[in-house]
Amino acid sequence: MQSADSVFKVKDLSIFYGDNQAVKEVNFEIDKKAITALIGPSGCGKSTFLRSINRTNDLIPTSSNQGEIIYEDVNLLDDNINVISLRKEIGMVFQKPNPFPKSIYNNIAHALKFYGIKNKQKLDRIVEDSLKKVGLWEEVKYRLHESALALSGGQQQRLCIARTIAMEPKVLLLDEPSSALDPISNAKIEALIIELKKDYSIIMVTHNMQQASRISDKTAFFLNGEMIEYDDTKTIFTNPSIQKTEDYISGRFG
After folding, report:
1. DSSP state, 181?
2. Spatial contact of 96 and 180, defined as CB atoms under 8 Å apart
3. Would you say the pTM of this structure is higher than 0.85?
4. What is the DSSP string of 123-160?
């Protein structure tokens, strides 16, 4: 059983690409309504772990899993999981903004229509509410039927977050959501993530150590596929218990 305060309980999770073991027997619980940062050098397994939560790794033919990711007392890695429903409840935002080549409005409305929402007033309300939540409404409310591709990079990423939360997920997975953005846009995304924590459990991969220390509640340090240490972010950055964590945090490698 997972604790009442956790959104996920990860048990002996290993992830393989063919014969290569990318994640090695990871065990921990991830808190509800908190921001959990996953840090570590490139190729350490953190993004692979993140993608396993909503089964995005299934799209890679050579990938396979062992162990469990328990969510609401169900193992998300079971073969009988409805992956489409899972990805609606556990939304994901990627490193590079990836708006559809559609209007701003239809970037959000498209998936809603797919899931059966046809009423124009309801669509309008959800589009407006989602854009307001990401602080984009005032910037685009007179441009809703213009191409989303005309937006700046930071605006595109906020639109992608709006598109995700329009589906009313419970969990947001963020894979380096601001690494491709300029400092001003990055600051807006960070402020948005902190605001979204009120309504969502958030798990975020970041290479930016300052970002992790600024906005996350818990931090997990990955190295060579292993989760080396997991604790409150303040503890990880000021008093880690494992030397490898301290070496990475202090810039001795990575």
Report:
1. S
2. yes
3. yes
4. HHHHHHHHHHHTT-HHHHTT-TTSBGGGS-HHHHHHHH
Residue 55 near residue 81 (C-beta atoms within 8 A) = yes
pLDDT one-digit tens code per residue, 145-177: 999 999 999 999 999 999 999 999 999 999 999
How does pLDDT run across 32-54, given as a tens digit for each residue?
A: 999 999 999 999 999 999 999 99
CATH number of 6-249: 3.40.50.300
Inter-CA distances, 78 with 60, 81, 146, 156, 211, Å = 17, 6, 42, 34, 34
Beta bridge partners of 90: 171
Helix extents (H) in the chain: 46-53, 83-89, 104-114, 120-133, 137-140, 153-165, 183-196, 209-215, 233-238, 243-249
Residue in the block written with tokens 């059983």:
1
* Sequence-distant (≥ 6) Cβ neighbours of residue 161 within 8 angstroms: 93, 134, 172, 177, 192, 196
What is the distance between the alpha carbons of residues 60 and 51, in angstroms, rounded to a whole number?
11
Neighbour-count burial of 114, counting CB atoms closer than 10 A to its CB (0-12 exposed, 13-18 middle, 19+ buried): exposed
Q: Give the integer Cα–Cα distance in Å for 219 and 181.
A: 22
Closest CA to 94 of 180, 170, 216: 180
Strands across the sheet containing 20-31? 20-31, 6-17, 63-71, 74-75
CA dihedral sign of residues 138, 142, 143, 144: positive
C-beta separation of 30 from 201 below 8 A: yes
- Which of 55, 46, 136 is CA-nearest to residue 99? 136
Helix/strand/coil for 167: coil
